[in-house]
Design brief:
This is YhdH/YhfP family quinone oxidoreductase. InterPro entries: Acrylyl-CoA_reductase_AcuI, ADH-like_C, ADH-like_N, ER, GroES-like_sf, NAD(P)-bd_dom_sf, Zn-ADH-like_protein. The protein is an alpha/beta fold. It folds into two domains: about 5-115 and about 295-325, Quinone Oxidoreductase, Chain A, domain 1 (Alpha-Beta Complex), CATH 3.90.180; about 130-270, NAD(P)-binding Rossmann-like Domain (Rossmann fold). About 25% of the residues lie in helices and about 25% in strands. It is built from nine helices and 15 strands. It has helices at about 45-50, 120-145, 160-175, 190-195, 225-235, 260-265, 275-285, 295-300, 310-315; strands at about 5-15, 15-25, 35-40, 70-75, 85-90, 105-110, 115, 155, 180, 200, 220, 240-245, 265-270, 300-305, 325. Strands 3, 4, 5, 6, 7, 14 and 15 form a seven-stranded mixed β-sheet that branches. Helix 6 (about 260-265) links the parallel strand 12 (about 240-245) and strand 13. Helix 2 (about 120-145) crosses helix 3. The two termini are about 20 Å apart. Bound molecules: NADPH dihydro-nicotinamide-adenine-dinucleotide phosphate. The site of NADPH dihydro-nicotinamide-adenine-dinucleotide phosphate has 32 residues, from helix 1, helix 2 and helix 3.
């Protein structure tokens, strides 16, 4: 198919990375069994890294970012994925070194495509996007480890962010008492509206010399990494678990073994990118039914391609809040 389409494309210009709308050709998309007309994408921290030229995310430019996409299958050579059906694609190499959801079309392997859960649509799926999927995986891991509301409060760090806000609402919906840890004092009201019982500042996780602190959280979802994660581990009750998925506060983790060997605390790594498609399907299915986060869905903000640049820059500065959907229409 040699049809033109629009994409928000990032180019290298004198060592700088600049994104703008371009007209491209479907024939130039990478090989793959499934061609998808993308109606919606979602904004993630990783997209901001790709758009700013981070070579750990995207090696070659020009490049179309967008690690999430949802839309209609227009061509498929796979028996599993029907033409005309709606699909969700998140993670794997999408938007990293494969043209991503910031373009109106993507071509990907069939093994990357999750059929849209019945009763759901592309925009709703992209309100959650990779961030929501990751929040769901973090909560699922806590549940698998036996987390229950009666054990006590669950902390969520980076609570106003895309992953954190979904984790707050989902945990509250499942009956947990949520303590939201946030650097944005002006988000106290919105975090409480999502279901947080208490909102505390990031100073709850500033560096302390002691290797263990008073255990106050039964479990936790950490989306920031670095020093705050190390401090969180010191405050988890015996037998509790911390799902760890992010690094906005840094990739280093300086801790002692004491939370692990004296309190039996579990540190659970969460990856949403390279996991089996079935694990993604399980979480999408839950969000489309029992785990629906109605407040997150109602408060999502839609933007067009022209607003991508500013929105991605806000991500890099840690100023982003809530969920942002890219609408290609
Ligand atoms: P956001 O930028 O939306 O949210 C991150 C939040 O962390 C911010 O809103 C802010 O919340 C807080 N924060 C920002 N900077 C700092 C800092 N220096 N120290 C402490 N807290 C900070 O990002 P996402 O929610 O989309 O992603 C969160 C992390 O999860 C990222 O590192 C991302 O790469 C990672 N991620 C990992 C995935 C995986 O598969 N493992 C998938 C998706 C994301 P507040 O102001 O409320 O404190």
């Amino acid at each position: 198919m040699n049809t033109e389409y629009k994409a928000w494309r990032v180019e290298e210009q004198d060592g700088d990375y600049v994104g703008s709308e371009k007209t491209l050709n479907i024939g130039d998309l990478p090989e793959g069994e499934v061609l998808i007309r993308v109606s919606h994408s979602s904004l993630n921290y990783k997209d901001a890294l790709s758009a700013s030229g981070n070579k750990g995310v995207t090696r070659n430019f020009p490049h179309t970012p967008g690690i999430d996409a949802a839309g209609e299958v227009v061509e498929s050579s796979s028996a599993e994925i029907a033409e005309g059906s709606q699909v969700i694609v998140t993670g794997y190499d999408l938007g990293m070194n494969t043209s991503g959801g910031f373009g109106e079309y993507i071509r990907v392997p069939a093994g990357w495509c999750v059929p849209m859960p019945s009763g759901w649509d592309a925009r709703t799926a992209m309100i959650y996007g990779t961030a929501g999927l990751t929040a769901g995986l973090c909560v699922q891991k806590l549940l698998t480890m036996g987390a229950q509301p009666e054990q006590g409060a669950v902390a969520v760090s980076g609570a106003s962010g895309a992953v954190g806000s979904v984790a707050v609402e989902l945990l509250a919906r499942l009956g947990f008492e949520v303590v939201a840890i946030s650097g944005k004092a002006d988000h106290e009201k919105s975090l409480k509206a999502l279901g947080a019982k208490e909102v505390v500042g990031r100073d709850a996780l500033t560096q302390e010399k002691k290797p263990l602190l008073k255990p106050v959280f039964a479990n936790a979802v950490d989306t920031v990494g670095g020093t705050p994660l190390a401090e969180l581990l010191k405050q988890v009750k015996p037998g509790g678990s911390v799902s760890c998925c992010g690094l906005v506060a840094g990739p280093q983790l300086e801790t002692t073994v004491l939370p692990f060997i004296l309190r039996g605390v579990n540190l659970l790594g969460v990856d949403s990118v390279e996991i089996p498609l079935q694990d993604k399907k399980t979480i999408w299915q839950k969000f489309s039914s029992d785990w629906a986060c109605s407040k997150t869905e109602a408060s999502a903000r839609d933007i067009g391609r022209a607003e991508l640049d500013a929105a991605l820059k806000a991500f890099l500065k840690g100023e982003s809040a809530g969920k942002i959907v890219l609408d290609h229409s």
